[in-house]
Amino acid sequence: MTLAFVVPGLDEAASEKAIAILQNRLSQEQEAALVLKHAHWNVTGPNFIAVHEMLDPEVEAVLAQADETAERIATLGGTPDGRADAIVRNRTWKSFDAEGRVGTEEYLKALIEYYDAFIADDRKAIAELDELDVISSNIIQDHVQELEKFQWFMRSHLA
């Protein structure tokens, strides 16, 4: 990886490690937006409209997270990769399983499981970033707070 520059207070090695972690998070954030939109289009059954309408604000929130992550990568002197093949190349998580037109309960259970891994991966990234760049860590901490809140919405909907 060739850095355009190194921000004051970080060395090149720490910057490169932080960028790699953030790129992985960017890829999962982008995929999550696609997964949520897929569910939005294909959810069916009881409480359809409630779940359908609940998903769009989360799509927007996750896309905003991806934008913030990409901008942090650029701020650190890196080049964020937002291409579709980067999502696949950077995947270290299980892909989303629900396909096609599926009932609300099944979609929400699949999304909750997806978010379990998403949140766990973000928390792992936070621990790694704490040692490298506290600013990047704080950004991902804010993202986790939003993800956990939405997961609570989904769990509450099933309760």
From TrEMBL:
<protein>
    <recommendedName>
        <fullName>Ferritin/DPS domain-containing protein</fullName>
    </recommendedName>
</protein>
<dbReference type="InterPro" id="IPR002177">
    <property type="entry name" value="DPS_DNA-bd"/>
</dbReference>
<dbReference type="InterPro" id="IPR023188">
    <property type="entry name" value="DPS_DNA-bd_CS"/>
</dbReference>
<dbReference type="GO" id="GO:0016722">
    <property type="term" value="F:oxidoreductase activity, acting on metal ions"/>
</dbReference>
<comment type="similarity">
    <text>Belongs to the Dps family.</text>
</comment>
<dbReference type="InterPro" id="IPR012347">
    <property type="entry name" value="Ferritin-like"/>
</dbReference>
<dbReference type="InterPro" id="IPR008331">
    <property type="entry name" value="Ferritin_DPS_dom"/>
</dbReference>
<dbReference type="GO" id="GO:0008199">
    <property type="term" value="F:ferric iron binding"/>
</dbReference>
<feature type="domain" description="Ferritin/DPS">
    <location>
        <begin position="19"/>
        <end position="158"/>
    </location>
</feature>
<dbReference type="InterPro" id="IPR009078">
    <property type="entry name" value="Ferritin-like_SF"/>
</dbReference>
<dbReference type="Pfam" id="PF00210">
    <property type="entry name" value="Ferritin"/>
</dbReference>
